[in-house]
Design brief:
With 718 residues, the chain is an alpha+beta fold. It has 24 helices and 18 strands. Helix 3 (52-69) packs across helix 8. The longest helix is centred in the C-terminal third of the chain and has 30 residues, at 571-600. The radius of gyration is 38 Å and the shape is extended.
C-alpha cells in the first residue's frame, strides 16, 4: 500500500517519464520505418510507380540474351553498363508509353500480349522471321536439330521453372518483351502522327512558297584562320540575360559527378625483376643438373608430366616455336622473357611423325544410369552388344548399315566426324592411331569407333615448358598500397589531392560528368567501385575515398570535385558553356558584317572565295523545302534568309554555325499546286513531322513530362 501511495504521490512526474519513454520508443520505430515512406532506398520510380523488382527482372532477361547472342559466360564492365542502359531505356519508354495508351483507352490486354508472342513464334515459319528470335533458334541448333529448337521455343512456358534452361527462358522473355514494345510504340506513334493536320491556308501558303533559286554562293567558317583577327567578347550581363531566357536548354537530365582519381600502378620494382630472373636462372640450372625431366618434375612438385604431342602451329609464340622445333630433340630451352609478362624455360624430350586428325564413324550403345535413365540396357548388356558390334565390323560388316539402330540421339545425316589430337582424350587418340576399331567405355555408353581415314603424318614434339610470372612481390604491393594510403591521409579535398599528387609525381585521371551507372572514369576502366562510392548517399563534394584496388593492376584514391543534380543548373555551372556559345554567335555576326562590307565595296563572291580560300559554288539550285544535302550543305537557317534576297544583289547571311556570301541569278516560280493540295499536305507533314524526327521528339517530350527517380547505382550496393 505504501508503494501505491508513493506512486500516486508522484503520479504526474511518473507519467512524464513514461510518456518520454514511449515517445522515444515510437520515434525509434518511426526511424526504422522511415525507409518505407521515403525513396531513400528506391532504385527506380516512374510517375510514382516503384519498379525495382521489374528492373531487376528485365536486367536478368537482357543479361541472358546478351550472353547467348555473344556466346559469353560473363559480361565485362563495359557490357554490363550497356545492358543496364538498354534495360533502363526500355523500361522508361514502355512505362510511359503504356500510361499514354491507357489514357487513350488502348490498354494491351493479356490476350493481346499472348497474340503478339504467338505471331512472333509463327514468324519463324515465314520468309520474314523475327530476327532476334531467329538468332536464338540458330544458337539452339548448335545443340539440337532446328525442329527441336522451334518446338522448345513454342513450348517455352513449360520450362519457366527449369533451372537447367533458365538462361534460354530469360533470353526468350527479353525477345518477347521487345516485340511487345515495338507493337506499343507503333500503335502510339500512328495515333500521335495521325492527328497532325494542316489547314487549306497552310497548304496554300506552302505551295506558293515552294520554289527554288539559281544562285552563286560560298561558305565561310568563323573558325578558319582567315578570321583569327576578328575577336568577339560578351559581358557578364549578356551571359546572365541569356541564361534567364534559355534556362530550359541547360536542363541536367541525370545526376553526375566530377571525380579525380590518383593512380598507383602495381608494377614490379627493378629488385623484383632481378629476383624473378634469379629464380628462373636457379631453376633452369637445377633442371639441367637433374637426371631427367621426370626427376625435376617430381623434385619441384609440379605434378604429372604432360606427354602430349604438339605440332608447330600449336605454338602461338614464334620464339618458343623456333626453340622447340628448330633444334634437336633433348635440347634445353634457355630462359627468355616474353613481353615483360612471363619467363619461359624448359626442354624437348620426344618427337614423332603422327597424323593430326582421324576421320571416324561410330556406334553408340547406351546403358541405364542416373544421368541416362531412359535406356533399357544394363551396363553389362551394353558391353556385350558393343563387343558383338566390334566383332561384326572386324569380319567386314558395314558400319553405316548398323548406324540406324545405334545413332545415340544423332541425326541420320550426322554419322561421322574428324577427331583432332587435342579435341579428344590423349589415350583415345593414341588408340585410334594404332588400330582401326576401338571400343570406348564412356560414362553412359560404350562407343564403337571405326577409323575411316587419317591425315598425313607430320612432325610433332613432346616438350615441357616452365613459366614464372613477372609480377610485383608482396613487399612491393604493400609499399605501393602504403603510398596510396599516405596520399589519402594527406588530402582533405579534391584540390589537395591534385596538389599532393603533382608534388609526388602521381598520375591523376579526371572524370567529368560521370553518371551513376558508368563503369569507367575517363580512360580508367573497371572503376565501378569508385563510381558507386561517389554516388553513395553519404558522399559529399571534396570527400576523399578509401584506397581501392582495381583488377590487381592499380591502387587508386578518388575525390569528388563537383556534383551535378538533375534539373535546372546554377548559372555558375554553365557559365563557361554559355560564354563559349555567345562568343561564337557574336563572332559569326562580326564575320557577316565584315563580308557584307566587302560586298558593298564592290568585291565579287568569286574574289571573296579566293581571299578566304573557300570553294565557289556556282549555278547551284537551292530548294526552299529541301534537306541540307539537297542544298549543298547550306544550313536551313541560312536557306530561309536566302529566299528573301532580291535577284542579282550579293549579300551575306548566317546560319547557326557558318556565314554565307550569296547572289541569286534567278527565282523559279513554284509549280501548280496539286488537287486539293494533297501533295503539299504530304510534303508539309514530312517536313514538319517526319517519322524518325517526330518519334524521337515525342518520346523525349513524354520523358520530360514524366516524374522520374533514377537511383540505379543502388543496384551495386545490394
Amino acid at each position: 500500500m505504501a508503494a501505491i501511495g508513493s506512486i500516486r504521490k508522484h503520479g504526474i512526474f511518473l507519467m512524464c517519464i513514461i510518456g518520454l519513454a514511449l515517445l522515444a520508443f515510437v520515434m525509434g520505430d518511426i526511424t526504422q520505418l522511415s525507409g518505407l515512406f521515403s525513396d531513400k532506398y528506391t532504385m527506380v520510380k516512374i510517375n510514382g510507380q516503384q519498379l525495382d523488382d521489374e528492373y531487376r527482372l528485365r536486367l536478368e532477361q537482357n543479361n541472358a540474351l546478351w550472353k547467348i547472342f555473344y556466346e559469353k559466360s560473363n559480361l565485362d564492365e563495359t557490357e554490363i553498363y550497356q545492358v543496364h542502359d538498354m534495360t533502363w531505356n526500355q523500361l522508361l519508354e514502355q512505362t510511359i508509353m503504356e500510361a499514354q495508351l491507357k489514357n487513350l483507352g488502348l490498354t494491351f490486354t493479356k490476350d493481346m500480349k499472348e497474340e503478339i508472342a504467338a505471331d512472333m513464334v509463327a514468324s519463324l515459319y515465314s520468309q520474314q522471321p523475327n530476327q532476334l528470335l531467329y538468332r536464338l533458334v540458330m544458337f539452339l541448333t548448335q545443340q539440337v536439330p532446328v525442329e527441336e529448337a522451334i518446338s522448345f521455343i513454342s513450348n517455352i512456358e513449360e520450362y519457366r521453372n527449369n533451372s537447367n534452361v533458365r538462361e534460354f527462358y530469360n533470353a526468350y522473355k527479353a525477345i518477347e518483351r521487345f516485340a511487345l514494345i515495338d507493337q506499343q510504340r507503333a500503335r502510339y506513334m500512328a495515333l500521335a502522327q495521325g492527328i497532325v493536320n494542316f489547314s487549306d491556308e497552310a497548304a496554300r501558303h506552302f505551295a506558293a512558297n515552294n520554289n527554288s533559286v539559281l544562285a552563286q554562293a560560298i561558305t565561310l567558317y568563323p573558325t578558319a584562320t582567315q578570321f583569327n583577327d576578328i575577336q568577339a567578347t560578351v559581358t557578364d550581363r549578356e551571359i546572365r540575360n541569356w541564361f534567364r531566357a534559355n534556362k530550359s536548354r541547360y536542363q541536367v537530365r541525370e545526376n553526375s559527378r566530377d571525380i579525380d582519381v590518383a593512380i598507383f600502378p602495381i608494377q614490379p620494382t627493378p629488385q623484383d625483376l632481378a629476383s624473378i630472373q634469379d629464380t628462373v636462372t636457379h631453376r633452369f640450372v637445377r633442371l639441367k643438373a637433374s637426371p631427367s625431366v621426370e626427376d625435376f618434375h617430381i623434385s619441384m612438385m609440379y605434378g604429372q608430366l604432360d606427354s602430349t604431342y604438339f605440332k608447330r602451329d600449336d605454338i602461338s609464340i614464334d620464339t618458343l616455336a623456333k626453340l622447340i622445333f628448330d633444334r634437336p630433340v633433348g635440347t634445353f630451352i634457355e630462359p627468355f622473357e616474353y613481353e615483360g609478362m612471363v619467363w619461359y624455360f624448359g626442354k624437348t624430350f620426344g618427337s614423332a611423325k603422327r597424323p593430326d586428325s582421324v576421320h571416324l564413324a561410330y556406334l553408340v550403345v547406351d546403358f541405364k544410369t542416373d544421368r541416362n535413365p531412359g535406356s533399357n540396357r544394363t551396363k553389362a548388356e551394353a558391353k556385350s552388344t558393343a563387343d558383338s558390334l566390334k566383332g561384326l565390323l572386324q569380319r567386314g560388316a558395314n558400319i553405316f548399315t548398323l548406324l540406324p539402330d545405334f545413332l545415340g540421339g544423332r541425326k541420320a545425316t550426322d554419322t561421322t566426324f574428324w577427331a583432332s589430337e587435342h579435341a579428344v582424350y590423349p589415350q583415345l587418340f593414341d588408340s585410334l592411331l594404332k588400330r582401326n576399331l576401338y571400343v570406348q567405355d564412356a560414362p553412359t555408353a560404350f562407343v564403337v569407333y571405326q577409323v575411316l581415314e587419317r591425315t598425313a603424318p607430320i612432325e610433332k614434339r613432346q616438350f615441357v615448358i616452365y613459366t614464372e610470372e613477372i609480377k610485383p612481390s608482396d613487399a612491393t604491393v604493400k609499399t605501393i598500397r602504403s603510398q596510396a594510403m599516405q596520399l589519402q591521409a594527406e588530402s582533405n579535398s579534391a584540390e589537395e589531392l591534385m596538389i599532393n599528387a603533382a608534388q609526388k609525381g602521381i598520375q591523376v585521371v579526371q572524370g567529368r560528368e560521370v553518371t551513376s551507372m558508368m563503369s569507367g572514369i575517363s580512360q580508367l576502366q573497371n572503376a565501378r567501385e569508385i563510381v558507386s562510392w561517389a554516388f553513395n548517399l553519404n558522399t559529399q563534394v571534396n570527400d576523399v575515398s578509401d584506397v581501392y584496388n582495381i583488377n590487381e593492376n592499380f591502387f587508386v584514391v578518388a575525390a569528388v570535385r563537383d556534383m551535378r543534380r538533375s534539373g535546372t543548373p546554377k548559372l555558375e555551372d554553365v557559365r563557361d558553356a554559355i560564354e563559349t556559345e555567345l562568343v561564337a554567335i557574336r563572332k559569326l555576326e562580326l564575320v557577316q558584317n565584315a563580308v557584307a562590307e566587302q560586298l558593298n565595296s564592290g568585291s565579287s563572291i568569286q574574289q571573296l572565295a579566293e581571299i578566304y580560300q573557300t570553294a565557289l559554288m556556282d549555278s547551284i539550285t537551292l530548294t526552299f523545302v529541301g534537306e541540307s544535302y539537297q542544298n549543298r550543305s547550306i544550313e536551313n537557317a541560312a536557306v530561309g534568309k536566302i529566299f528573301t534576297l532580291p535577284v542579282k544583289t550579293p549579300a551575306a547571311v548566317t546560319g547557326r554555325n557558318n556565314a554565307y556570301a550569296v547572289s541569286i541569278y534567278e527565282i523559279n516560280e513554284p509549280a501548280e499546286p496539286s488537287s486539293n493540295y494533297m501533295m503539299e499536305r504530304s510534303m508539309l507533314k514530312n517536313t514538319v513531322a517526319g517519322r524518325a524526327r517526330n518519334e524521337n521528339t515525342i518520346l523525349e517530350g513524354l520523358k520530360d513530362q514524366a516524374t522520374i527517380l533514377d537511383q540505379r547505382y543502388l543496384y551495386f550496393s545490394r
